[in-house]
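ingest -> validate -> predict -> emit
validate: passed (alphabet ok, no gaps, 87 aa)
predict: started
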Amino acid sequence: KMCEKEILDFEVLLSDTHLLRLTYEEDVLPSPNIGYKKICDFLKVPYIKNKISLIRTNPYPISDMVINYSELAARLQNTPYEWMLSD
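emit:
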């Protein structure tokens, strides 16, 4: 919760500033070129389509990577972070 408050405070502080907001889920995960194009547009520099060779470091479902997944799922249930348990 503290982090959420700090992010909201930061957004209020920068509300009069020309700001670009990117998220991993919307701007990188589907294709890194989405975020790259948004950055180019924001900076008003030419967008040159390219092949990005980076891949996800954890391509497996979180349930396969976390030993105490059931405890984690129970803790996150009915919270704003519950969505993080699904791909």
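Residues 6 and 12 are 10 Å apart (CA to CA).
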